[in-house]
Amino acid sequence: MILLIAGVSCKKNKSHPVPSIAFDFQIDLTLPSYQELNNVGGWAYVSGGIKGIVVYRQSTDAFVAWERMSPEDPDNTCVEGLTPDSSNFLQLNDPCSGAKFSMYDGSPISGSSWGLRKYQAIWNGSNLLRIYN
């Protein structure tokens, strides 16, 4: 029993395999490259982070931003970042490991015990979305 508890607590103390880097920028939702974010369920790629960022609009007033570097690639050797699944827009796929993640909440679907690295996304209620870590 003690070994089981020790094993579980060791997992909790491990740091996320995707490094945390500092950045802070805004995107203008009126620009054509971010047009999909004007609708609930829309997503767009944004430059920033380590391998880029996927921004997803969860509801009329909530956005989430996910790092495209997979937690299954801690050495950042995969050339491609996470990409939305062509048949399920709510799923991000790791092209190298085959892991799958939820674009809605960042949780692992298969192939990983880690969720995605989340960045802060704050909408001003108009046309600007601030993304930062």
- Globally, the shape reads globular
Topology pattern, helix = H, strand = E: HEEEEEEEEEE
DSSP helical segment count: 1
The counted number of beta strands is 10
Lateral strand order in the biggest sheet: 1-10-9-4-3-2
Q: Evaluate the radius of gyration.
A: 16 Å
Give the helix proportion (percent range).
under 10%
* Overall SS class: mainly beta
**Beginning-to-end CA distance, first to last residue:** 38 Å
- Average pLDDT for all residues: 92
Low-confidence stretches: 1-11
- The share of residues in extended strands comes to 25-35%
Major sheet details = 6 strands, antiparallel
Write the layout of secondary structure elements.
Elements: H1 2-13, E1 24-28, E2 43-46, E3 53-59, E4 62-67, E5 83-84, E6 91-93, E7 100-102, E8 108-110, E9 118-123, E10 128-132
Antiparallel strand pairs: 1-10, 2-3, 3-4, 4-9, 5-6, 6-7, 7-8, 9-10
State the main characteristics.
133 residues, mainly beta, six-stranded antiparallel sheet, four-stranded antiparallel sheet, 1 helix, 9% helix, globular, disordered N terminus
Structure in words:
The protein is mainly beta. 9% of the residues lie in helices and 33% in strands. The protein contains one helix and ten strands, in the order αββββββββββ. The chain has one helix spanning 2-13; strands spanning 24-28, 43-46, 53-59, 62-67, 83-84, 91-93, 100-102, 108-110, 118-123, 128-132. It has a six-stranded antiparallel beta sheet with strand order 1-10-9-4-3-2, with no helix packed on it. Strands 5-6-7-8 form a four-stranded antiparallel beta sheet, with no helix packed on it. The model is unreliable at 1-11 (pLDDT under 50).
